[in-house]
Amino acid sequence: MQINTSKEMIRILLRLILPAKTYARFIGVKIGVGCRVVSKNFGSEPYLVEIGNHVHVTKGVSFVTHDGSVWVLRNEIPDLDIFGKIRVKDNTYIGNNSVILPGVTIGSNCIVGANSVVTKSIPDNCVIAGSPAKFITNTKDFKDRIVKYNAKTKKMKEAEKKKVLLSNEFSFFIEKEYLKIEK
Predict the structure, then answer these.
(1) How confident is the model at residue 103 (pLDDT cuts 50, 70, 90)?
(2) How far apart are CA 8 and CA 6, in angstroms?
(3) Which residues are catalytic?
């Protein structure tokens, strides 16, 4: 990798040393209050990304604000560039390694499952997952289904949490059904 300018070198160093949320704001991402940002993958136009309040952007999430596929048309149209703003509204969770594509708006109170590729805008109160991401359920039904598994360990210290989870009395683990295999 060749570093062309001292400004580019400073940006690379800051990416390495700054916390993700601080780095994101430094490069121009608009971030609301009460957010947890772990990813530093905001693409080449980070100033086109807007994140609302109380949003959790987990590890490996990528925001892609341009359409790189225009590369194949550059001989015919040398100055072709396509961009789209990405907006994530309030109280939303984006799971590990998800990819958010140009022009997408993710509504409030949404959950994006891990490894999802979000190609279309998502209305409020949706749980989505997959590649491409598809509607799974609404957040109210999701809450109704999962609340019975509440381990109530969130405020415990790690040692106490471990003791509870490994005790014989603990019975709140999620158990997934087997995948149906067509023969």
Answers:
(1) very high
(2) 5
(3) 66
Instruction: Specify whether the CB–CB gap between 100 and 108 falls below 8 A.
Output: no
Sign, CA torsion 111/132/81/9: positive
d(CA 171, CA 177) in angstroms, rounded, equals 17
* Per-position DSSP letters for 9-76, written without gaps between them: HHHHHHHHHS-HHHHHHHTT-EE-SS-EE---B--S-GGGEEE-SSEEE-TT-EE--B-GGGGGGTTT
The domains of the chain are located at: 6-138
Over residues 46-62, mean pLDDT: 98
The pLDDT tens digits of the residues spanning 155-180 come to 999 999 999 999 988 888 888 899 89
Q: Which CATH superfamily is domain 6-138 in?
A: Hexapeptide repeat proteins (2.160.10.10)
Residue with tokens 């603990």: 170
